[in-house]
Give the backbone structure.
Amino acid sequence: MTANNINSPADYKFPPAGSSPSQEKAWVKPTLIGIASGYLALVLFIPMLNVFYQAFRKGVEPFLSNLTSPEFLHAAQLTLVISLIVVPVNTVFGLCAAWVIGRNKFRGRTLLISILDVPFAISPVVAGLMIVLLYGRVGWFGPWLEAANIKVIFAFPGMVLATAFVTLPFVAREVIPVLEEVGTDQEEAAKTLGANDWQIFWNVTLPSIRWGLLYGVILTNARAMGEFGAVSVVSGNIAKKTQTLPLFVEDAYKQYATQAAFSAAVILGFLGVITLVLKEILERKTSIKEVE
């Protein structure tokens, strides 16, 4: 190696005096924040503000009168009843599915998890069509149901089935990672001390997964109250009979009752805000629990 091949300090290019890499890229962070803020404003904030403006532009009294109409009250009541049925059912199913998947290693476990994610993968409209093909008049179970004088499609049972299908994975998907992270040490210790299966679940397992479980329940309830696609296919959207709150919003807007539609949309938005607040609280509780 010759002296000519050895780099000297003069061969290096130093940045100009008074500048640094952080100063040179100081524009990157504000630019990214501006792009994100602009995108959120276009797709979320401006439409949300418009909903509130349209609902209250004629005053508070017309807004409240829209919320006391028979059509709105029936739609809100039907939405609440469906949620009261679907959320407990899917909570029990989610706990059972999470226990089987999170506590056992067996052949076909990955396939079972994939099947559990089917409601996430397909369109809710397709889910509603599947229910029609199964329980409709010319569906697989249609003749039997008709012979028993049981109406599923364009009736309350079909709406419950559609809502249950689209909200199926939430509880299980939130509980499975928690079960896997907690492990089985505490449960095995309780078993060696003589606790039975119910005592182990109630006193050991449930306290460990309670925040994940509540998180899944909140997401299930939010989706149940806001579901539109699957329910619209199986319900027929009949006012004061098979019309939930999201369907009421669409129907009122089509009937040029725009303020009634926006008033109902404000209520749905308010429910969404409550869901976000509860979600944030549970996330903070979960992070505190992990630190402890």
Summary: The radius of gyration is 27 Å. The chain has a mean pLDDT of 86. The chain has 15 helices and no strands.
